């Protein structure tokens, strides 16, 4: 049977917005290579649009931090149980676990015990903390697909099958319009600076980060009324989650749906929650400040576990602080506004930031990550 005639069934498990996007792009490539393939599982809007049969909606369980996870424990447990039932009842040919580490580790163990091949996409950050997890994951999977080239050595050292596939963001972070066209579409004045607000793709991030971003925007606008503010809304965030915060703000913020990269390229500076978004902004070469805030206990625990000095992906990849990070108590409206002012007004500082982002982009290479993942999955399906 050729791949064009094959009817493989692939179970996808993606618990967060970035994973939802990665899985969607991967499945689109798989469909091109093997039109008869069937996808089902847990994910969000992007996976559904790609043709994956979403059995579990992940929009309510993409949380970070021990305290946050405990609050959503019942929902997370029900999602895991539902996916386990699919493994047993529908016997998929392959399980693709996309990020969402601890949840997917449990699912991977379960599936492998029942004879389902497991492909894990996006390695846990073993280079940052708990390197012993390499062995743990090695026992639960058949292949680890990593998105940074330096990650392969950790798995090779423990004889765990690993493949560097490239970072999926390199292919998908492509504006659809030119900058002038985008400014016109969003009714932004090209003669005045634009500041972006990216408060995150999870509900708890919106609650923690958006109020301080809006407070910083108010301080900036008070001194410079000509400033324009734009907020690219993540697909995983409902309108109502933003509306309550924006209604109370004393500054006008233009919300953009469905065109995040067109919106970001319009910006002269961006305040962004840490995560995949910071890497996407780096690929677009827009100066930024990275922010994050967790529940106090989650942060205390993380400080004792994480062994690297940065949380922002651009800084981690660069191996140095090319972008300012405002974490926990450092995240105040005054500090955030001051950093945006510096990025807008200090040409030397701004130029240094853009130069560092250029090096990050170079290190991420030429792309092809989603196609590489599709080919790897089909290789495993064919018995490779």
UniProtKB/TrEMBL annotation:
GO biological process: lipid A biosynthetic process
Annotated keywords: Glycosyltransferase, Lipid A biosynthesis, Lipid biosynthesis, Lipid metabolism, Transferase
InterPro entries: Glyco_trans_19
Catalytic activity, reaction form: a lipid X + a UDP-2-N,3-O-bis[(3R)-3-hydroxyacyl]-alpha-D-glucosamine = a lipid A disaccharide + UDP + H(+)
SUPFAM superfamilies associated with the record: UDP-Glycosyltransferase/glycogen phosphorylase (SSF53756)
Molecular functions per Gene Ontology: lipid-A-disaccharide synthase activity; phospholipid binding
UniProt function note: Condensation of UDP-2,3-diacylglucosamine and 2,3-diacylglucosamine-1-phosphate to form lipid A disaccharide, a precursor of lipid A, a phosphorylated glycolipid that anchors the lipopolysaccharide to the outer membrane of the cell.
Protein name in UniProt: Lipid-A-disaccharide synthase
Organism: Methylomonas koyamae
UniProt gene name: lpxB
